[in-house]
Amino acid sequence: MPKYYEYKEEDGRACGGVREDLRQCLLESPCVLRENKSPKQCLKEGHCRSLQITFFACKRSMLDTRARFRGRKGY
């Protein structure tokens, strides 16, 4: 189960769950903790790639007119 659902407040923004999980993944990655790089640099290097793709798909589905019927991607 994603960390978002475990004792967290509801984020009213779109794709908030994916955003929170991506943020936590980046902050807990060895790139940030051991190498002292910024989360932005680690994201460019490919860390937490699956969450980044999920977040992109969620944001893209907001612009898709078919999302009215299918719902937003992600959680």
Mean pLDDT: 82
| Low-confidence sequence ranges | none
What is the overall number of helices? Answer: 5
Strand percentage, roughly? Answer: under 5%
- Which structural category fits the helices and strands? mainly alpha
Tell me the major beta sheet: none
Task: Report the end-to-end length measured between terminal Cα atoms.
Answer: 11 Å
Number of strand elements: 0
SSE run = HHHHH
How helix-rich are the residues, as a percent range?
55-70%
Radius of gyration, taken over Cα atoms and rounded to an integer in Å: 14 Å
> What best-fitting shape do the alpha-carbon axes yield?
elongated
Which SSEs are present, and which pair or pack?
Elements: H1 16-27, H2 30-33, H3 39-45, H4 49-63, H5 67-70
Helix pairs in contact: 1-4
Question: Key terms for this structure?
Answer:
single chain; 75 residues; mainly alpha; 5 helices; 0% strand; elongated
Q: What does this protein look like?
A:
α1 runs antiparallel to α4 (49-63). The mean pLDDT is 82. This protein is mostly helical. The chain contains five helices and no strands. It has helices at residues 16-27, 30-33, 39-45, 49-63, 67-70. InterPro entries: Cyt_c_oxidase_assmbl_Pet191 (IPR018793). Pfam families: Pet191_N (PF10203). Keywords: Disulfide bond. Belongs to the PET191 family. This is Cytochrome c oxidase assembly factor 5.
Give a summary of the structure in a few sentences.
The protein is an all-alpha fold and 75 residues long.
